[in-house]
From TrEMBL:
<comment type="similarity">
    <text>Belongs to the short-chain dehydrogenases/reductases (SDR) family.</text>
</comment>
<dbReference type="InterPro" id="IPR020904">
    <property type="entry name" value="Sc_DH/Rdtase_CS"/>
</dbReference>
<protein>
    <submittedName>
        <fullName>Short-chain dehydrogenase</fullName>
    </submittedName>
</protein>
<dbReference type="GO" id="GO:0005829">
    <property type="term" value="C:cytosol"/>
</dbReference>
<dbReference type="Pfam" id="PF00106">
    <property type="entry name" value="adh_short"/>
</dbReference>
<dbReference type="InterPro" id="IPR036291">
    <property type="entry name" value="NAD(P)-bd_dom_sf"/>
</dbReference>
<keyword id="KW-0560">Oxidoreductase</keyword>
<dbReference type="InterPro" id="IPR002347">
    <property type="entry name" value="SDR_fam"/>
</dbReference>
<keyword id="KW-0521">NADP</keyword>
<dbReference type="GO" id="GO:0016491">
    <property type="term" value="F:oxidoreductase activity"/>
</dbReference>
Length: 268
């Protein structure tokens, strides 16, 4: 039976790579995004392989938009097999540069947007005998680095929310995964907000260092979610970092990280 897949932020970056992965599996896909022109390009690239792929404009900070998306999906498909909460933004800067408005902005999109989507679509997912909820967090949420406090906190909250949903929604046949990729080449820096000079350049440098791309990450996500994994780590360096944090004494780990990151930061 054809799977129906809803991907927020599916018009670019990792979202577009996920559209490609599910199109290759012959899925029916909805791209929920703010960027219509980008979505049209992704649709054109995947229309031949997907059973169907269409765009629905949606701002995940708007409850009205989320409810309209739910109505569209319900009327068009009558079911939902997979929801991927991928839409998100980035922030950066030292604490003194990150005002409360910036904190509220990133938390409203990265965390509360995901909460809105999950609350709206969980009942539809539960109608299936088996369904998947895949939340895109970040390595930054489990092994944070300096100069990204609000982003790190938003993604840590996503990881915690996902763990809670993994336990809470299991009785409804919904398998929940959380994805924590390290930096890789994407357009995350386009949406990034920072008032500190040098932060955008720092993030671009980190994004360019990865030895895997968005297609690689998307392939890992699909395979591991289908296998029933909860936490999906796409990067070897991320797996190593989490292993050290989990198994080293906390004080030793923090001393090691402080020493390692002494010279890390934006150039003035």
């Amino acid at each position: 039976m054809t799977q129906c897949v809803l991907i927020t932020g599916g018009a670019s970056g990792l979202g577009a790579a996920l559209v490609k992965q599910y199109a290759q599996r012959g899925a029916t896909i909805c791209i929920a995004d703010l960027h219509a022109e980008r979505a049209k390009k992704v649709i054109a690239e995947n229309a031949q392989q997907a059973t169907d792929v269409f765009f629905q404009p949606c701002d995940i900070t708007s409850q009205a938009d989320v409810e309209e998306l739910l109505q569209v999906i319900t009327e068009r498909w009558g079911k939902l097999d997979i929801l991927i909460n991928n839409a998100g933004v980035a922030t950066g800067g030292a604490l003194a540069y990150e005002d409360i408005e910036q904190w509220e902005w990133v938390l409203n999109i990265n965390l509360l947007g995901m909460v809105r989507m999950t609350r709206a679509f969980a009942p539809l997912l539960a109608k299936q005998s088996q369904s998947w909820l895949i939340n895109i967090a970040s390595q930054a949420g489990i092994t944070p680095i300096p100069y990204m406090a609000s982003y790190n906190a938003s993604k840590a909250a996503v990881a915690s929310f996902s763990e809670t949903m993994h336990l809470e929604l299991a009785k409804d046949g919904i398998h929940v995964s959380v994805v924590c990729p390290s930096f890789f080449a994407t357009n995350l820096d386009e949406s990034m907000r920072s008032k500190q000079p040098g932060v955008h350049e720092l993030v671009k440098k980190l994004l360019s260092r990865s030895d895997i791309n968005a297609d690689d990450v998307a392939n890992i996500i699909v395979k591991q979610a289908e296998a029933g994994d909860f936490m999906i780590l796409s990067h070897k360096v991320g797996k190593k970092a989490l292993f050290m944090k989990r198994f080293m004494p906390t004080n030793s780990y923090m001393r090691m990280m402080k020493k390692k990151l002494q010279r890390f930061g934006p150039k003035k």
